[in-house]
């Protein structure tokens, strides 16, 4: 008789159902985990609302995953055993294509992502396939690490990769636009890397108030004040060394360019909705010698660094989690995230 579990299944854009599905069967070279915590990510919300070009419907989404091993295949040769507490990396690169060989695993031409190409973590159980076990990054958690806090490793890895690439360093003035969980991670990591002045920009007064706890030196409510003028005022008209647009808004990307000082760096971290186009003042870029970066994803080494930051406590992952909710309440969790009421919601299947 087939066993049943509950899962949040996306049947198409705007069509998410919390329903009974068949529980995955553990193959002889596979591992089955019981999902203990899964993070609600902004990219998941976009996929739920608007779809994703790589999604195969119906699909169990969710890629920020921590769980416990409940079954190991008879021919599995790895070192995981029943009872192990695992963090599941969300990128499965092939390690064979040219980007992988050059160390750009996040740009793998054959990349597989749980919750997009294969079933993810919005379910009671998740199957770790042979490919996921061989090419993914799956780590046994320390006994004192909570499942909920470990889901922050994945977004932190992308934040870490970004700040490594643009070299946030001692004495820098850094602006972060958008105080969702990723924006707050950028604020705290920039502080850890030695930035001397961090300016947080956000339209939601509720989120802006939360951002102060993560190390922002200045808070700008962009719904009430011109953020470009405020940044210029704070920096005595010089502008910022690094500006990170961490929200999916065309206006934020345009403002980021105007906030940067001479020889400054602008990062478009948050992608904008499909069909939206950002018009940039290229003369400002040209005459101020600005560097514009696009960023998403991370490599294996970035994930390891993020994992270290969380398990060592150097970055306090627990305080990002404003709510822990049952998976069946995922629609409510999405509403709370979009309204700004929550910074990070962890779902518990």
Automatic annotation (TrEMBL):
Domain Enoyl reductase (ER): from-to ranges: 12-347
Origin superkingdom: Bacteria
Pfam families: ADH_N (PF08240), ADH_zinc_N (PF00107)
SMART domains, per database record: PKS_ER
UniProt KW keywords: Metal-binding, Oxidoreductase, Zinc
InterPro entries to which the protein is assigned, alphabetical: ADH-like_C (IPR013149), ADH-like_N (IPR013154), ER (IPR020843), GroES-like_sf (IPR011032), NAD(P)-bd_dom_sf (IPR036291), Zn_alcohol_dh (IPR050129)
Molecular function GO terms recorded: metal ion binding; oxidoreductase activity
Amino-acid biosynthesis in keyword set: no
Name of this chain's protein: L-iditol 2-dehydrogenase
